[in-house]
Amino acid sequence: MTATIAAVDNVASARRVSVPRGYRFELVKLVSQWRIRLLVLACWIAPALFVAAVGQQSTLPVDTLFGRWMLATGWAGPLVMLGFAGTWALPLLTSVVAGDVFASEDRLGTWRHLLVAVRSPRRIFVSKALASLTVILLLVAGMAVSSTIGGLLAVGNQPLVGLDGHLLAPGDTSVRVLLAWVCALAPTLALAAIGLLGSVSLGRSPMGLLLPAIVALAMQLAQMLPLPVSVRLALPSYAFISWNGLFTTPEQLGPLLIGVVVSLVWAVLATVLAYVLFVRRDFTNVNYDGSGRRAITIGLLPLVGLVVVTVPTVAVSTGATGSGIDQDKVQRSVATAFAHLYRVQTKQLNRPDVTEAQLKASATCDKGSSRVAPEGPGNDWRCVVSWHLPGIKAAGSAIYQLDITADGRFMADGDGPKEVNGYFLVRTPEGDAPNPLWQFDGNVELLPTSKG
Amino acid sequence: MDTLLAVRARGIGKSFGDVVALDGIDLDVTQGQIHGLVGPNGAGKTTLLGLLLGLAVADSGRLEILGTPVGRALDAPDGVAGFVDGPGLYPSLTARQNLAALAALRGRDEGASVIGDALDQVGLTDVADDRVRGFSLGMRQRLGLAAALLTKPRLLVLDEPSNGLDPAGKKHVHGVLSRLAADGTSVVLSSHRMDDLEALCSEVTIIATGRVVFTGPLSKLAAENRELDYRLQTSDPEGARRLADDTAGIGVIDGAMTRQDTGMLVVRALVPALDELVSGLVYAGIAVRELAPVVSPLEAAFLALTEQQEADR
Asked: Do A11 and B56 touch (CB under 8 A)?
């Protein structure tokens, strides 16, 4: 006769490990990896060193937004770093952290062991997602804090020239810099979710690890193409660009909010898809190495579907058509920025102050010497800016060559007269200083909803 | 008298698509027993161990573990520990950190002494603070066992625990398993190392193509099994050979295994015929210096099964 042990010993059902405990376990594993430690160290130290080093150079990264102001204020440093991070660092960081968080268990052959210990794939998923999110936030925070400290220590806490030429006080700038980094978290989360999706669906394949970086690269390429503005805004990568709307007056919040919302929707959808793929996985199959078919049907197609739905939604809700860059917007942006910067130059030269209202600056712009329609990106824009000074009948004028990129950013290069924008330096009572009207950056808002 | 069962499986079936991994498996493992699972590759051992660990759910049949019916995947009762397909360790952590992290994960605030004791039991105290990255396969196996011991299991399920173990490591592992069994923990282990199974297991279950072909004590296996080859060393090899030739049911195997220089014969026989031969040798005044199976009954059964499987293909 036999009896089970329960006859003499009440056996409790297996207790599932709680999410907080699973989260701590995953965090311990992540932080114990040398590459994660190296990344944390790099993100908290390298930006400060980079910003401080650039702050001592005479050659500035003028191709990067706010790069030309790195000698003028320490607040340019974290913004240059943010521009660089959105292009390169954040996609790679999310690849290394989120893109490997599930695949590493495949590589180590520890899934069964983990399942026996935790007894809930759902909780494993949540724990891993939260742990990778924590590490990513730690890395992003490191870059923001480090570059800010480096900039402020090396250059100082001076006002920043905004993208419309407006001078932003240090306190105001600090809030905007913080907001810009917070906004960049949204597309970072989207890439992290894509990393989770790749890690779950592609197993040990290197493609799983590289997926966020590849997706980010593809989206960056898309942002460089002359795509309709509704397509541009339907991609989460736009939120890596749209934070520049915080540095105009008034702020260009439309594209910024759309970019953030689209990114968060991507983050949620990709995470849900990764979750569905994960809980459906057959963990008894030791030879499992990702599911290519499921990765496409459950992973890729819904995200493509999201883009397909988002494009007309953005187009209808914002009324955005074409490239979003037209003659009126360009003229308005150039005139506004010029007027603000003219006041900066006036102050530098110790001339009597004038207001933007007194200047009544206006711009007349054409594209390709009027041979092509004055709309869309290109480096063949030419503007003539006119302004008035109190008590002087004749209007002043200056010429600028504009290179406008598809995301609405432009660089205006002074083309005379030399007294206004012909020289890199201006002679001030305190010595030579960079001429703010020689070259300046600006931003054309792609949406028709507000005036920049 | 009741026999307490740690595992009671009846008619367990499990398929993966068209592949039938388990086909009506019955298994009883009593409390404090070390039970071996043997079978060729693909026989279904790992699948069965996975069911015991709660990694998968059976398609059919009834499974009770530690008295609790198992109905859903990942619903194995508390008190079950072990590993399949390797011990599942994290190479970037030290041995001690691996155990501490696992203990914390399970909500057991094990003190350093408990972790140290587990490491000591498997002979890894000296390398407790080394990263697992540098561990040999055998050391990882032992650390996996230590991780299982932290939960104070009442059913320990181990897949190939002796893989990569050197003699000292094997001694540690055997000692740990024997002590656990003596304390009432049931152990189910799968291994291709017949010497391990014979040294440790009181009962074995042989599985082939998802079915149980034998289950019970090793002695029963020897009795049930077909003819075995035995090594026979006597004081008079020539006389012993003549006697063996004359004994019904005894076949003398000529060839490499017969070493005239050492006076050793290899004979093939069932146990009753062998008994008759030994009686005859004693009656003839020939001293029997050694009589042992060339391969163990378990290994013979395993080889026979493997050969049968190949023949069926």
From this structure: no
